[in-house]
Design a protein that fits this description.
single chain, mainly alpha, 35 helices, elongated
Length: 713
Amino acid sequence: MSWFEKLTSWLNSQSTSPQALPMQKLQGKLETARLLRRRGDYDNALHELNNALTLADTLHHQTVLFSIRLHQIDILIRLHRLDEARTIITSLLEQADDSNKLYHAYIQIALGMLEQADQQIEQARHHYERGLRLAQEIHAVGAHGRAQGHLADTYLMEENASYAVYLFEEALPRLNASGEIEIACYFVGRFGQAMIQTGKMLEGVQIIGRALRMSEQLSYRQYEVMWRQELAFYALQQGIYDEARRHLMVLLTQIDPQQTPKDYTLTLCRLAKACLRLGEYTAALDYAQQAVDFAAQQDAKPLTALTMATHGIVLRTMGQPNQALSSLQIAAQSCDMLPTNQTDFSALDVLRNLGAAQTEIGNFEVAYQTYQLAMTQAEQAGLKHDLAGIYRDVGIYHMRQNNLNDALQSWTTALKIYEAEGDHARVARLYCDIANVRRGFGQAKRALRDYEQALMLLNAFQDDETRGVVLSNAATAYVDYGDVETAESFFIESIQIAQRLQDRQSEATRRGNYGWFLLNTGRAKLAIQTLEYALRQSENLGLKLQVAVQTDNIGSAYDEMKEYDHALAFHAKAWERIKQLDEPHWKAFIGANLAHTLLALDYLDDADTTLKAAYEVAQQSKHPDLLMRCLNGMAKLALKRGELNDVQLFLNQVFELAEQSGIRRLLADAWLIHSEWAARQGDYQQAQSDWQKAADLLKLLMIQLERPDWLVI
């Protein structure tokens, strides 16, 4: 039975005595003090205990006075008013009968708590051990459990988790048997932390969850906050962001920003991170801005650094590198103050995002210096995974400048580090990145081998997130190579994985890619339905690039259905959206598609202007997909204008690019234009042969080609 319960039991037994009214008043004050303490209102709880002590003096009962004093000591230690707590303990020692070993056991425990609060761990342990021996002598189960629990706490503080686990396993049954539920709320949670430190993460988290439920049942606010913070911490660490967000949202309502401003600011930063990882960008930015504003009211440089880091990383992830730059630069100047845990954004997170932002705005020289600094820090700290990640970033940096060889060299270095660390998931992801780039530069066969490497690695680990990434990337490539059935199964499974993981951003992107697949395999109506759904998701998530691309693909679907007025409306809307973004490649891509529709509607001059601008970007990027798209458009324009010599020149370049890239759909389009060109010159045998080549290519994509007017004689 706990001291409060003992006291209540004794007071109830006196309810029929002449002192019944004072007893009831005393009982009321003690109950109020207990409720106030559980709510975290320690000053008022102490006030009630002081009043109770004055009233108890008239009762002359040692147990009552001793219990009130113990609770005063507990609250004073929580308020870190250690001198006052020590004065009361000294008084209790002077007054306690030497023969009353139970009292002395609790006094020794109180002394241990005092020394522990003063960071004197060895002294604290000495007192806990004395209290434990006294409790054992008189078989006092509650005091025995308390002393063991506090001892375990000190060993855990010194990272001796195995011994702490042993002590907690001994202490907790004794505390349960004696009814010491309040202190058990703390020790159960610490037991969970000890289990985690011994490598039993799942069991430890479950035990902390039990501590949280106990705390909620008692409405014990301090422990509710403490254990919910821990559960949020571990959820973030394990990448379970929806669970982390759930805990953090509750914490915002429980933490008093005035009493614990640091905890409140950390919660805002972590909530921003969780929302960011869930693709909820608007919410992430809102929480990050609140954190910045709140930290500005405090004189705490580490908090300022963390809030600026969070704010900058959110903005850069949202595709706003210019706006992110100032926050990231401020955070980078205080990198040594940033946390080193795996839950909050670190110094390397800041430097990597700063380098990326500088790269994205074209400040390449400064970006490279930032990446060099990040590499140095990662090497000095022995952070192999982070070092590999930086090499991956540097590869992207080189790609922004179209330096394929330098990019591949950086990525190869990253691959070697990941492979040496046995990180198959990151190896698979990086193979996809490399394959995507090779494919973009027309190295089709080499890209396919990289995709196959990534797919084979899926058998080496269980990671749904990485599996979804690999399948969604490989699916797009398999379309080009004519394996439509495999591509479709990859698309569908990758979407299902995103749904299961509640990864809304990935789901929106993959649905959009699946819509593109349906469009390119002759299912335009179904493509429109899929793309419209993906577009709504992307708009809700604020994915500006995806919104533009998916809008453009809806336009292309209407092109396939020869509803060119509808197609033009969507391409024009996509064009307006992409112009607001710093995405020259996609601007050229959408421009080329817009020109296709303009040609179908005989707006030749507008198509000409749009194609020239797109082709200029395509020549700089050297991406065969974009070059072929532009050249096909220019050939079609020349054909409409009767400039037949130019048609052949443009298409010869397409045929040459197609040999490298293996992009069947665009090659088929080129053969169709060539067929019409041959028919214009009266060579119907050549026109028929060219048309058949296009039909055979499209058949691989499950598209049945109707005979065109120029072959109907």
